[in-house]
Known about the structure:
The protein is α+β, with helices and mostly antiparallel strands. The chain folds into two domains: 3-54 and 277-410, no CATH class; 86-265, no CATH class. The protein is built from 15 helices and twelve strands. Strands 1, 2, 3, 4, 5, 6, 7, 8, 9, 10, 11 and 12 form a twelve-stranded mixed β-sheet that branches. The two termini are 30 Å apart. The model is unreliable at 203-207 (pLDDT under 50).
Amino acid sequence: MTRLAFTNGLLLALETIRSHKLRAFLTVLGVIVGTGTIIGVGAILTGFDASMAAILRSFGPNSIIVFKFNVGFRVTELTPEERTRKNLTYQNALHIKERCRSVQDVSPMLFSNHGFINAHYKGNDMYDVDLFGVEEAYANGGQADIHVGRFFTDEESRRRAPVVVIGADVEQSLFANIDPVGKIVNVDGHQFEVIGTMQRPAASFFGDQDKRVLLPYWSMQKMFPNAKENAIVVTAREGKLPQALDEIVTVLRIDRHVPYNKPDNFALSTAEQMIADFRQITAMTFLVMVVLSSVGLLVGGIGVMNIMLVSVTERTQEIGLRKAVGAKRADIVIQFLLEASVLTSLGGIAGIIFGWVISVVSRLVFTSLPATVPLWAAALGIIVSVGVGLFFGIWPAYKAARLDPVEALRYE
């Protein structure tokens, strides 16, 4: 087909669509919904990915979290073997600090097993705070950015001093408009002196609120003797993350008496690893949404095929005339395929606009979700919509091309 013939065919297709605007819109409504869904889901997942990546990277590029099972995003449930693993211990943290040359800072992190824990100061309460027992190295590793006051020392931890450092939202809830340093706060029935507060992190793994309440490790052990669940927060030396991971695995396998032919009974998680786990889940989510949205595309494609068959019937005499003056079968096929692809591509463009509206609404409703339409999603929407037009336009195009010119000219 020559460029002139292509241009004329395109103009004819646009004129046909303009002459039947409502019919064309209803025909491609399924394409609009299907394409818009792909674009909208792509925008939301892109924003969610950026938000979660920022949260996970807030741990620091050299940070390692050691726990008895993987703390990242999981596709499957915990296995029976993972549920019965022994807790990590304070001694494990000491051995990592002593034996791993590529490690800069190590802090055990003791979790409370009391369920919901509340903090109280005079008439103010903060419900369901995140209570942990840590050491000075936790702040040295960049996990705590002090706002006012200071962080506690290892000496205060050894003395089991009743001191506490609180997060930004705890400070705001309990000590609005007053200096919290030196005040006595009640945490789950125990009295602690506030010696410092922390800046709200740029992104928090524990949610939008900064409800951290940090005690010295041994103070936590004294106040909550039943707390046994430990994690270990490790900061590798600059550029030594792979070596640090290998050294930690070696030390813990020895500590936990893991036979050489058995897998690790603990897990090491880094920010990049958790991001990779998260993206594996979002990829599956996107695949499921594409499959669901393909139902709309299928409905739209069937509508396109139906309306093109109607168009072939309506334009039978036109087809007969074109063939009588020398048009080839290929010319007729290309003409109708072009019309079908133009119709669905316009539906695809409308779908992209619809998906963009979804992303804008998502940003307004969920302000922490930077939903944006990625270029690949817009390109995929156009490609898919054109592909639908070509696929479902094949049968009507070939039906038009096979018409006998004599019979077509007699058709009324």
